[in-house]
TrEMBL record, chain A:
<dbReference type="Pfam" id="PF00400">
    <property type="entry name" value="WD40"/>
</dbReference>
<dbReference type="GO" id="GO:0030687">
    <property type="term" value="C:preribosome, large subunit precursor"/>
</dbReference>
<keyword id="KW-0539">Nucleus</keyword>
<keyword id="KW-0677">Repeat</keyword>
<dbReference type="InterPro" id="IPR028598">
    <property type="entry name" value="BOP1/Erb1"/>
</dbReference>
<feature type="region of interest" description="Disordered">
    <location>
        <begin position="153"/>
        <end position="178"/>
    </location>
</feature>
<dbReference type="Pfam" id="PF08145">
    <property type="entry name" value="BOP1NT"/>
</dbReference>
<dbReference type="GO" id="GO:0043021">
    <property type="term" value="F:ribonucleoprotein complex binding"/>
</dbReference>
<feature type="domain" description="BOP1 N-terminal">
    <location>
        <begin position="13"/>
        <end position="262"/>
    </location>
</feature>
TrEMBL record, chain B:
<dbReference type="GO" id="GO:0003723">
    <property type="term" value="F:RNA binding"/>
</dbReference>
<dbReference type="InterPro" id="IPR010613">
    <property type="entry name" value="PES"/>
</dbReference>
<dbReference type="Pfam" id="PF06732">
    <property type="entry name" value="Pescadillo_N"/>
</dbReference>
<dbReference type="GO" id="GO:0000463">
    <property type="term" value="P:maturation of LSU-rRNA from tricistronic rRNA transcript (SSU-rRNA, 5.8S rRNA, LSU-rRNA)"/>
</dbReference>
<feature type="compositionally biased region" description="Basic and acidic residues">
    <location>
        <begin position="287"/>
        <end position="296"/>
    </location>
</feature>
<feature type="compositionally biased region" description="Acidic residues">
    <location>
        <begin position="297"/>
        <end position="307"/>
    </location>
</feature>
<protein>
    <recommendedName>
        <fullName>BRCT domain-containing protein</fullName>
    </recommendedName>
</protein>
<dbReference type="GO" id="GO:0070545">
    <property type="term" value="C:PeBoW complex"/>
</dbReference>
<feature type="region of interest" description="Disordered">
    <location>
        <begin position="277"/>
        <end position="307"/>
    </location>
</feature>
C-alpha cells in the first residue's frame, strides 16, 4: 500500500505504529522490517542485496537498476550525472537555459579579443618576409650541420698550443679483460684478491659463450669517472726518460784490450780416480799439487802435465797447500783430524796417519792441544777434531787451520812445533781464514760476515757484511786492501777495506753456489768457480790513486768442466807468474787454462 | 704582494670563480665545454688541497661569448620562474619556447683547429655517444629522450661510415663491452660499446656532468660526421630505412644514399659548359652516364672496385703496408653470406661482417636472404645446434667473426662450432713487446697467418 503522508515530515511518524491515513481515514500500518539477523542472512543469500535501498518516506524497498548505479557513481566522482547521449540531449532541451546556467563557466574576455603576442609574432614574421629572410619562428627545429673544417691547413694552430696538454688515452684492454681469456690469465678465487687492482672483479667469472656474458654494471660509473678525470684532474707533462738498460751500463773496455787472461783450455791433468777437491801451486810455478777424494795427493810437473809422485792416505785429503817459504819445499795436507807436513821431494808411497793408530789410546781429545809428531822427514799435527783447511802465513812459519763449518781457529808454528787456539766458539760457522798479505791481521769469513782482526793488539778492526747472503769463500787481493767473497747464491761481492763495510760491487754471476775465488799474484785478474760447472775470469784493476775507482770487467766464462752430481768446480789457482788458471773439477781432472797467445 | 712567478701564473678555483662572477656549476660546465683542466703548479702557494688553474686559461674563459650567454640564460630562467609563480602558464609556455639556445660550433673549431685534431680525440666522444645510445630516458635523473636519440643517430652514422669505408681494424669482446678500432684518415680511433643488454642507471653518478660532456661531444660528432660524409660525396644525414628503423634495425637501417649523382656530375658538367658554352655536351654526358648506369653488373663491379680503392687510399694514405692491410680488411669476408641467428648481437655482427666485406642476413624484418637460402655460407649462432645443422654451410660462434677480423685470416671453423667451448679470445690491442709473453693460441694463429701469406 502506498503511504499517504504527503508533505508531513517522516520524523512525525517515527514513534507511531502507522504511517499516514487512507481515504477512509483509517490508519495505514507500517510494514514490519527485518531485524539485523535477517538482514545478515539476506546479505549472504541474495547476491543482489547490495542494490536494495530502503526508502523511508515511501516505506518501501527499492532495487536499483544498473543505470541507477552508474548514475550514482558518476555523481560521486563529481562528473556530470548523465553521459551525453541522444536521450540526454533531448532531456536537456526540456530544461530552460536559466536552469543550467549555473553549470556553465563564463568564457573569459580574453578569448574574444585578439592575442597581443600573436599579433607581435605575425608582425615580426611579416617584416621578416618583406626583408626576404626566413623568420625564426618558421624555421624547423632540425639543426643544419655545416662544414667547420673547410680546408686542411697545416699552419693552422690552436691559440693555446703552448700549454695545451691532450688528455691521456684510456688503457687498451689486455688478454685478461677478454670474456674468454686464455687459461693462464684466468683469475681463480684462490688467488689473493687485489693482486692486480681494479681488474680482479672483471674476470672473476668465466663465460664459455657470448650469450652468457651479462651487462657490465659498472659501465656508466666508469664513463663517469673518465669524465671526471677529463675535467677535474690536473694534467702535468712528465718527461719520462726513455733509456735502454744497455745505455745505463758504464762503458766497459773491450776484453781484447785487457789481455793477457786465461781463455782457452790447453792442458788436462788426468790420473785421479775421484773428485779433485783442492789444488796448490808452488812459488816457482813448476809444481802442482792436487788433493782428491780418492785419498791421494799427486804432484804434477806443469810444463809436461806428468804426474811425478803419488802419496796415498787412509782418508780423503780435504785440502793441500804449499808452504810459501822458498827454502822449505814443504806442503801441508789435511786428512781427517791430521795436518800432514810433507817434503815434496819424498818418494811416492803411502803415508801413515796418527789418527788411525793413535785414536784408541790418545789423550788429545781431553787435552784439546794438538800433538806434534815427526817421522822420517814428515811432520804430523794431530788435532782434537777434524780439520779441513790450512792457510799459510806469507813467511812460511805460521799456518792457521780450521774446519769449514766449525767454530775454532788454531795457529801453528812450524819451527817451534807449537799450536794455539786463537778463536774459540765463534758464533757463526767459519767458512774461510786468511792472513793479511803484509800486516799482522787475520781475516775470518763466517757464514754471515767477515771479521778483520789485528793479531798484535788482539782486537777486531772491521766487520764486513754483504746483506743477508750466506758466504762461502774468500780471497784477498795481493795489495791487501781488497777482497772478494763468494756466496751460496752465486754472487761475488768485492770489498774495498778502505771504503766501507758494505761491498763496493756485487756481481750476480753464477747460477749456483760459488766454491772458490782466487786472485792472480801479479796481474789484475781474479777468477771464481762454482757448482754450476763454470769458471769465470774477471779483470780487477785496483788503482793506487785514491781518486780512481776499482775497475772490474768480466772477461770470460769457461765451461770446460762437465757438471757431475750437482758438483762442478771445487778450486781454482792462478799461476804465480803466467796468466794461467788451474781449476779442479768434480770430473776427476785438473785443467790448465792459458791465454790465447 | 704578488710579483712574477708561480703565484702570478696560477689561480685557485675560488679566485677564478670570483673573477668570472660565476657559480661553481656554471664554471664547471664552462670548463667542460672549453676543455679547461686544472694544472699542477710547481709550488702550491695557496695550500696543498686547492685546485689550481692557469691564469691564461681563466682569461681565456673570461673572453668566452658563451659566458655572456650563460648570464642571459640565468636571467631568462628567472623570468620563467616568475611567470610560473604567478601561474601565468601561457607566458611560461611562450617563454620556454623562445628560450635562447647556444651553439657550440665555435668551441669545436677552437678546440680542434684541424680535422685531424678532432679525429685524434674521438675516442671519448664515441664511447659516450654509444653509451647514451642504449641508456633509458629518465626524468628523475634528468636524461631527456631527445639527447639519447641524437646520440644514437650520431653513433649509427659513424658506424655506417666505417662500414662503408671498410675502416674497421680490430674488435675485442671484453667483459666490459666491445672494443672497436677503426682507422680514419690514418688515425686510430678506439671506442668501447656496452653489450647489447639493458643498462641500469646507478644512483651515485652525476648525470648533469655526463650530459654536459655529451652536449659538446654531440655537436663535435655532428661536425665530424658531416665532414666525413661530405668528403665522400655522401648525403648527410644519411637516409634511414624507416621500415627497418621501426623494427629496431640499428645499423642495417641506415641506407647509404649517394648524394644524388646529379650534384657531383652536373657540377663538372657545368664547369665544362661555362668553358665551352655548349649545351649539347651536357645532354650527351648525361646520356652517357645513364647508359653506363644501365650497363649492368660490369659497371657495378668497376664502380665497386673504384670505391674500394678510394676507401683504401683514404684510410691508409701512401704507406704500402697500411694499404695492404686495408685491402685485406676490405676483402676478408668477400663472397661470404652470414646468417645471424637470433641470440647473437645483430648490430655488432652486421657492423663487423659488412666492414670486412661480407654479406649478412638475419631472422626477421628486412633481411636480404632467408635462413634456408642456399647461398648462405656461414651460420653464426651461439646455442648448441645438434641435429639442426645443414651440411652445406659452416656453423660458427660470434667469436669466430671477431678472431678472423683481428687476425685477417679465415680460421678453420672446427674449433668454433656452437656448443663447445671456443679457443681463448685474445686481445688484439696487446703488443708482444709490452706483454713479454705469447699465449699458445696466439702462436697457433700466427702460424696460420704465415700459411695464408
Amino acid at each position: 500500500m502506498e503511504n499517504t503522508t504527503g508533505d508531513a515530515p517522516s520524523e512525525w511518524y517515527r514513534e507511531e505504529e502507522h504511517i499516514g491515513y487512507d481515504v477512509d481515514g483509517r490508519r495505514i500500518s507500517k510494514r514490519r522490517w527485518n531485524d539485523s539477523i535477517e538482514n545478515l542472512l539476506h546479505t549472504i543469500d541474495d547476491p543482489s542485496y547490495w542494490r536494495k535501498v530502503f526508502d523511508e518516506k515511501e516505506d518501501r524497498e527499492i532495487s536499483l537498476s544498473r543505470a541507477h548505479v552508474e548514475l550514482i557513481q558518476r555523481l560521486r566522482s563529481g562528473a556530470f550525472p548523465k553521459s551525453s547521449s541522444s536521450s540526454d540531449l533531448k532531456h536537456e532541451q526540456n530544461h530552460g537555459i536559466a536552469e543550467v546556467a549555473w553549470q556553465i563557466n563564463h568564457e573569459p574576455k580574453r578569448r574574444f579579443i585578439p592575442s597581443k603576442w600573436e599579433a607581435k609574432l605575425v608582425l615580426r614574421i611579416v617584416r621578416a618576409l618583406r626583408a626576404h629572410a626566413t623568420p625564426n619562428a618558421l624555421q624547423s627545429n632540425t639543426v643544419e650541420q655545416k662544414m667547420i673544417w673547410e680546408a686542411e691547413d697545416a699552419s693552422q694552430r690552436s691559440t693555446r698550443d703552448h700549454t695545451y696538454l691532450p688528455a691521456q688515452k684510456p688503457k687498451k684492454p689486455n688478454h685478461a679483460d677478454s670474456y674468454n681469456p686464455p687459461f693462464e690469465y684466468q683469475i681463480n678465487d684462490e688467488d689473493a684478491p687485489g693482486t692486480n687492482g681494479h681488474d680482479n672483479h672483471a674476470t672473476r667469472t668465466l663465460f664459455n659463450a657470448l650469450r652468457r656474458v651479462p651487462s657490465y654494471s659498472e659501465f656508466v660509473v666508469e664513463r663517469f669517472q673518465r669524465c671526471l678525470d677529463l675535467y677535474l684532474c690536473p694534467r702535468v707533462k712528465k718527461h719520462r726518460l726513455h733509456v735502454r738498460p744497455q745505455d745505463i751500463l758504464p762503458p766497459l773496455p773491450s776484453p781484447k784490450d785487457l789481455k793477457p787472461f786465461p781463455s782457452s783450455n790447453c792442458l788436462k791433468f788426468t790420473g785421479h780416480e775421484d773428485k779433485v777437491l783442492s789444488i796448490a801451486i808452488d812459488h816457482s810455478g813448476q809444481w802442482l799439487l792436487s788433493a782428491s777424494e780418492d785419498c791421494s795427493i799427486r804432484k804434477w810437473e806443469i810444463s809436461s802435465s806428468r804426474c811425478i809422485s803419488v802419496w796415498r792416505f787412509r782418508d780423503i785429503v780435504k785440502s793441500v797447500a804449499w808452504c810459501p817459504s822458498p827454502m822449505a819445499n814443504t806442503f801441508s795436507a789435511c786428512v781427517a783430524s791430521d795436518i800432514v807436513l810433507l817434503k815434496s821431494t819424498r818418494a811416492s808411497g803411502s803415508v801413515p796417519l796418527l789418527s788411525s793408530h793413535h785414536s784408541v789410546h790418545s789423550k788429545v781429545e781431553n787435552s784439546k792441544l794438538p800433538e806434534w809428531k815427526e817421522r822420517d822427514g814428515e811432520m804430523i799435527v794431530h788435532l782434537a777434531s777434524d780439520v779441513s783447511k790450512v792457510t799459510w802465513h806469507k813467511k812460511g812459519d805460521y799456518f792457521a787451520s780450521f774446519m769449514i763449518g766449525g767454530n775454532n781457529v788454531m795457529i801453528h808454528r812450524m819451527s817451534r812445533r807449537t799450536s794455539q787456539l786463537i778463536f774459540r766458539d765463534q758464533k757463526f760457522p767459519i767458512q774461510s781464514v786468511m792472513f793479511h798479505p803484509y800486516r799482522p791481521f787475520m781475516l775470518i769469513c763466517t757464514r754471515t760476515c767477515v771479521y778483520l782482526y789485528d793479531l798484535n793488539k788482539q782486537s777486531l778492526i772491521k766487520k764486513l757484511s754483504s746483506g743477508n747472503q750466506t758466504l762461502s769463500c774468500m780471497a784477498v787481493h795481493p795489495g791487501g786492501d781488497n777482497l772478494i767473497i763468494g756466496t751460496d747464491l752465486g754472487r761475488l761481492a768485492w770489498f774495498d777495506l778502505d771504503l766501507a763495510t758494505s761491498p763496493y760491487k756485487v756481481m750476480a754471476t753464477h747460477a749456483s753456489a760459488v766454491k772458490g775465488v782466487a786472485f792472480h799474484a801479479k796481474l789484475p785478474l781474479f777468477a771464481s768457480v762454482s757448482d754450476d760447472a763454470t769458471t769465470q775470469v774477471f779483470h780487477g784493476m785496483v788503482h793506487a790513486e785514491l781518486d780512481q775507482n776499482t775497475l772490474i770487467v768480466p772477461l770470460k766464462i769457461l765451461r770446460y768442466t762437465s757438471e757431475s752430481n750437482c758438483d762442478g768446480v771445487f778450486d781454482c789457482v792462478f799461476h804465480p807468474t803466467q796468466p794461467w788458471l788451474f781449476t779442479a773439477g768434480a770430473d776427476r781432472s785438473i785443467l790448465l787454462v792459458c791465454d790465447d797467445n | 704582494k704578488v710579483k712574477g712567478g708561480i703565484a702570478s701564473r696560477y689561480t685557485t678555483r675560488n679566485q677564478a670563480l670570483n673573477r668570472l662572477q660565476l657559480k661553481l656549476a656554471d664554471f664547471r660546465r664552462l670548463c667542460i665545454l672549453k676543455g679547461i683542466h686544472p694544472r699542477e703548479p710547481k709550488k702550491k702557494f695557496k695550500g696543498q688541497h686547492k685546485t689550481y688553474y692557469h691564469v691564461k686559461d681563466i682569461n681565456f674563459l673570461a673572453h668566452e661569448p658563451l659566458l655572456e650567454k650563460f648570464r642571459d640564460l640565468r636571467s631568462y630562467e628567472r623570468k620563467i620562474k616568475r611567470a610560473r609563480a604567478k601561474k601565468a602558464y601561457h607566458a611560461v609556455d611562450r617563454l620556454e619556447e623562445k628560450k635562447p639556445k647556444y651553439g657550440l660550433d665555435h668551441l669545436v673549431k677552437e678546440r680542434y683547429p684541424t680535422f685531424l685534431d678532432a679525429l685524434r680525440d674521438l675516442d671519448d666522444p664515441l664511447t659516450l655517444a654509444h653509451l647514451f645510445a642504449v641508456l633509458p630516458a629518465d626524468k628523475r635523473h634528468g636524461i631527456p629522450a631527445e639527447v639519447l636519440l641524437e646520440s644514437r643517430k650520431l653513433s649509427l652514422e659513424f658506424q655506417s661510415y666505417v662500414t662503408k669505408m671498410h675502416a674497421l681494424r680490430k674488435v675485442f669482446i671484453s667483459v666490459k663491452g666491445i672494443y672497436y678500432q677503426a682507422v680514419v684518415h690514418g688515425q686510430e680511433i678506439t671506442w668501447l660499446t656496452p653489450h647489447a643488454l639493458a643498462q641500469t642507471l646507478p644512483e651515485d653518478v652525476d648525470y648533469r656532468v655526463m650530459l654536459t660532456f655529451l652536449d659538446f661531444y654531440t655537436s663535435m660528432l655532428g661536425f665530424v660526421n658531416y665532414k666525413l660524409y661530405f668528403d665522400q660525396g655522401l648525403r648527410y644525414p644519411p637516409v634511414l630505412d624507416t621500415r627497418l628503423e621501426d623494427a629496431a634495425g640499428g645499423i642495417v637501417a641506415s641506407a647509404q644514399a649517394k648524394l644524388t649523382e646529379s650534384r657531383l656530375a652536373t657540377l663538372s658538367d657545368k664547369l665544362a659548359q661555362i668553358g665551352d658554352g655548349e649545351v649539347d655536351e651536357e645532354a650527351e654526358a648525361e646520356a652517357a652516364l645513364r647508359a653506363e648506369r644501365s650497363d649492368g653488373e660490369d659497371g657495378d663491379d668497376v664502380e665497386e672496385e673504384d670505391e674500394l680503392e678510394r676507401a683504401i687510399s683514404l684510410s691508409a694514405g701512401g704507406d704500402p703496408t697500411a694499404r695492404e692491410d686495408a685491402k685485406l680488411c676490405a676483402t676478408l669476408f668477400k663472397g661470404m653470406v652470414c646468417f645471424i641467428q637470433r641470440e647473437c648481437p645483430r648490430d655488432m655482427m652486421v657492423f663487423i661482417i659488412r666492414s670486412f666485406g661480407g654479406e649478412v642476413c638475419w631472422e626477421g624484418e628486412g633481411s636480404p636472404y632467408d635462413e634456408s637460402d642456399g647461398g648462405v655460407t656461414h651460420h653464426v649462432c651461439d646455442r648448441p645446434m645438434e641435429g639442426k645443422m645443414l651440411a652445406q654451410r659452416e656453423y660458427v660462434v660470434p667469436q669466430w667473426v671477431c678472431d678472423c677480423a683481428n687476425w685477417r685470416i679465415l680460421i678453420p671453423c672446427a674449433d668454433y662450432r656452437p656448443g663447445i667451448v671456443p679457443p681463448p679470445h685474445l686481445s688484439p690491442f696487446v703488443s708482444k713487446d709490452d706483454e713479454g709473453y705469447t699465449p699458445d693460441y696466439q702462436a697457433t694463429l700466427e702460424k696460420l697467418q704465415m700459411q695464408a701469406k
